[in-house]
Amino acid sequence: MGTFSLDDTIVAIATPLGEGGIGIVKISGPQSIPILGQLFVSPSSTTEPPATDHLPSRRLTWGHIRDPQTNRNVDEVLVVTMLAPHSYTRQDVVEIQSHGGIVAVQRILQLTLMAGARLAEPGEMTLRAFINGRLDLAQAEAVLDIVQARTEAALRVAVEQLDGCLSAQVRLARAQLVDVLAYLEASIDFVEDEIPPQDVVAPLEETAATVEELLATADRGRIYRQGIRAAIVGRPNVGKSSLLNALLRGDRAIVTPIPGTTRDTLEETVNLQGVPLVLVDTAGIRAQPEGEVERIGVARSHAALERADLALMVIDGSQPLTDADREIARLIGNRPSLVLVNKCDLSAASEDGGVPHAALAAGLLSDAPHLSISALTGQGIEEMEHAIVNKVMGGTVIASDTPLVSNPRHQASLKQALDHLRAARDDHLAGTSADLVAIDVLEAVDALGDITGETASEDLLEAIFSKFCIGK
Ligand SMILES: Nc1nc2c(ncn2[C@@H]2O[C@H](COP(=O)(O)OP(=O)(O)OP(=O)(O)O)[C@@H](O)[C@H]2O)c(=O)[nH]1
Ligand SMILES: [Mg+2]
């Protein structure tokens, strides 16, 4: 991204490339209107070239984009100008709405480049909105979260963040601390009777409580935003792929009675009560895989388990437990898991010396919930879905007026702030000198400032905005 210059006029295709109703080329910067003037012809215009600086702001105008070199029309378009500061970037912005497709939008993009615009970097439009004070950093990050949201719950969290709910709380806490900091610094420079005494402990404790409350939402918030990965593991033929299909309510994975059907891992996302759940179906794990392909498949199953946030261990309830089942339970160890005793529709056949297999299975991963299901008939699948959500949400209770912290970056900054707030309070109570207490308070102020961007470094901004798509 280099330097954060606002003087260039930048352009990007703002819609996905492909066949579609419309495609939008978006221009932002001081030359937006003159660049449009070089390319746009409108029959309603009485001047030649049309006086684009007289186009009404934020109203659509119909016309054509014309290649100034060949004088040929490229496409029929609608253009809208949004004059500074009434635009997303708070600069002059032009949006050219052409027919969707690949050629027309790319051709229009090229013409704007030839007319003096520069290709926008990923996230550069939003970066400008941030630099110009239209959005703070947490709000800018929310824009990316909205674009990437995979469930309505994730969208709701992101929209709340864009509205500034999180920013408002963080700013309030930060302002309180700035006040404490001013007092501490004054008490370093002046003798005590020159400045009225001020309570330091109460505001430190109050802000710490706010930060703690926000942190308590972070696990839940992160799950809504990022989703969780669940690996479906078990020995061959227990019904892992059938379970994936049952959760997807479709026929995604191949299911056969032949052990070793699934050779490679397969990923699909489902929405479980707002939680984006990435399900990974794996090859059945057995000690002696047959042939090279199965051996690689089993290695991938191990890797999928390593990367998963949650293990769904499937066992066949109609069969006795095997050493392979116990070995897989050992691999899962103490990571979060559920034991799914499948094929409960066959339970009549599940007696082994009078002891039901499900009961034998109770010894497996004894801390994990055990559920009886049938991937074939759908029995128990809904209960299992609830159990999965309960497991990942961990029963945390959150006050409804507390905004959810969904971004790990915000979580890290809040943790940092909390550590410094606690240190400052303890030091102050222990009679440590004001200049040392002030250092911790300043660190806390900066950590909170990182969230909303008041104190964010250029490196941090680059790291954040480079994750955006081009045109946003
Ligand atoms: N009766 C009954 N059969 C089931 C159930 N779930 C799966 N099956 C059958 O069990 C066999 C194996 O199912 P899969 O889903 O392919 O098992 P898998 O664990 O993915 O097997 P691999 O891919 O070989 O590891 C198929 O014949 C399924 O129809 C169930 O709940 N009840
Ligand atoms: Mg399978």
Explain what you see:
- The protein is α/β, with parallel strands linked by helices and about 475 residues long.
- It folds into three domains: about 10-130, Probable tRNA modification gtpase trme, domain 1 (Gyrase A, domain 2, 2-Layer Sandwich), CATH 3.30.1360.120; about 140-215 and about 400-455, tRNA modification GTPase MnmE domain 2 (Four Helix Bundle (Hemerythrin (Met), subunit A)), CATH 1.20.120.430; about 225-395, 3-Layer(aba) Sandwich (Rossmann fold), CATH 3.40.50.
- The protein has 16 helices and 15 strands.
- It has helices at about 30-40, 105-115, 125-130, 135-150, 150-165, 165-190, 200-215, 220-225, 240-250, 290-305, 325-330, 355-360, 380-395, 410-430, 435-450, 460-465, and strands at about 10-15, 20-30, 40, 60-65, 70-80, 95-100, 120, 230-235, 265-270, 275-280, 310-315, 335-340, 350, 355, 370.
- The strands form three sheets. It has a seven-stranded mixed beta sheet with strand order 3-4-5-6-2-1-7. The protein has a six-stranded mixed beta sheet with strand order 9-10-8-11-12-15, sandwiched between helices. Strands 13-14 form a two-stranded antiparallel sheet.
- Strand 1 and strand 2 form a beta hairpin.
- Helix 7 (about 200-215) runs antiparallel to helix 14.
- It is flat.
- Guanosine-5'-triphosphate binds near residues 237, 256, 260, 283 and 346.
